[in-house]
Amino acid sequence: MQKILSRKCLEDDENLLLALYPPSYDSEKGIVTKSAFKNNGTSVSRKSILSVDDILQILDFQLSKPGRRIEGYGCIMVAAVKEAAKASEELYIEVTEDPVADNEAHAEIIAFDSKDKQGLKKKIPNPVAKEICRSLKITKR
User: Fold this and answer.
1) Which pLDDT tens digit goes with each residue over 9-44?
2) Which domain holds residue 20?
3) Which of 19, 28, 31, 39 has its CB surrounded by the most CB atoms within 10 Å?
């Protein structure tokens, strides 16, 4: 928890990229399911740090495996991610920087149990995850 709290929170106007692949993404229908955001700590990448092409190259290497390839990506502003949780009194979302060795643009969507950030949620509630999905701007590959 302390490690998460020590991270810098991203500004609302920052644009994020999420890799999309089955089973949380149906490329034929262009639909992202709530499972893409169900777990706390969803990984995203910051478009202000690396280009889309550079991010996708990194994510192809990290995430693709036999039978699963990145079929698209979704872009969303930090403000839209946080806005999805505004109606809930038991949830507060921040997006924190979390650069890793292979991806300096890596960040995480963190769900806290309240605005005072005393505890973490295990899961993001379905209505909030669905709202985040609806806010994604999807690009097929």
Assistant:
1) 999 999 999 999 999 999 999 999 999 999 999 999
2) 2-140
3) 19
